[in-house]
């Protein structure tokens, strides 16, 4: 890899502001786009939302008005980037269609990161989480067929299988068991820092999305399913954010954020099939390079350290959207019955887990089970896409 | 692709007590038929296209007879919302009739079909967002069910599955021209509304 963001200069910040005409991007065609183009859009939207919210939090913890002004300038450009990226999504898509695309992101982004993660503890955290996103995709796909008579494969296009993962009812854990141990900022592989930031941002965006769009549905089962899965996204954000070393300074975190944005725009530019979208990834990369330089200057000034000390010596291998079917099948075969205990993982349902389950379900079937029952009443079957054969877990095969 | 049948009009055991839910599923059925036309060739495409034309005709007729008149009266601004939807329907009908004059294997066919698909999809979402939400809000379950019954009566006029053994256009010719189908649909809908 020859691309080193620290050695590149981008577009000067005072030339990054875009007019209404430039912000008015034509959306992708939902019936004809590459599903992974939509996944890249959803991912980068989550990354930009995190960039904006992180910068706001930093500004609220900053005393120096000059620094606040500097943060505001970069943040306004990031807000424009978020508008351009998210507005690539088409208005004709329903909330549920976009939801299914969010879950495809969660499955194939987390799946890829789990495969590439060098640290075994962090890898386990991604492997654990991806089986839950995988089950959410299956539940929403069944809801989609009930409400719109459409099959989820018209969205995920056979790149991602749709079948049960770890059953959603078991995702509700005592909150204390969602907190993981962090990596050590001084010894961890720099790639691990980028992975953690990326997955945390994507899950946070999913949480924000469900908590806001869920009540737009009128069908009781849809409203309830969004509530249930929305609460699991809260658990996932807790799970992933706790992987990040809290000992990183604010400025170090800022540099990591900007570096990660460079890494992802560069990755997506390299693999984008839609030329108009590719041009946006390239433009945004050139903007981010400058944001990174500004962040590096702030870190040198406030921490008295060189950013090279905390960053990778070169940009890691590009992050790629591609099918992860066999890897997921391996996890379905081996990790279905895991839950968390403290910061670790166990196979037995321990007391704290049982207590939480008892309280939240209140002796009733959760929405994620009822959606399957209602789908069965309507069609006399389930909706699945098992392109690679039967479910690896015999207990999860369709009766 | 999975082996499951694509769900199509009437192809489920939903009680259909809510006209809005029913019409939203029909919007999906129409998209499914667009997929079928795009993904098939020759006689199969001809057959799928004829089923699409019939479902579109029946669906739009039912909306014009049942839902739009109700929406006009039911809420503030309903008149204008319905006018906008009717304008979209007229434009779609024009594209549809231009398409109907082409052979389904004509190189012009697919680009025109895709343009129609875009128009129809935008129209369907506009109905769902600007008309249907008001309908659910401004009526009771009895009325929603009566309207659903009328739409079901219309739906029965448009078979959406290929007839086994007669995948040619002959079967569709036997069902008569689209204009006559729309007339029969209107009669069926009015009868259902009266009995509802």
UniProtKB/TrEMBL annotation, chain A:
SUPFAM superfamilies: Ferritin-like. Residues 173-187 have a biased composition (Basic and acidic residues). InterPro entries: Ferritin-like_SF (IPR009078). Residues 166-187, 358-399 are annotated as: Disordered. This is Ferritin-like domain-containing protein. It comes from Streptomyces galbus.
UniProtKB/TrEMBL annotation, chain B:
Coiled coil: none annotated. It holds the Pfam family Hemerythrin. This is Hemerythrin domain-containing protein. InterPro entries: Hemerythrin-like (IPR012312). PANTHER family: HHE DOMAIN PROTEIN (AFU_ORTHOLOGUE AFUA_4G00730) (PTHR35585). It comes from Streptomyces galbus. It comes from the Bacteria. Residues 20-132 form the Hemerythrin-like domain.
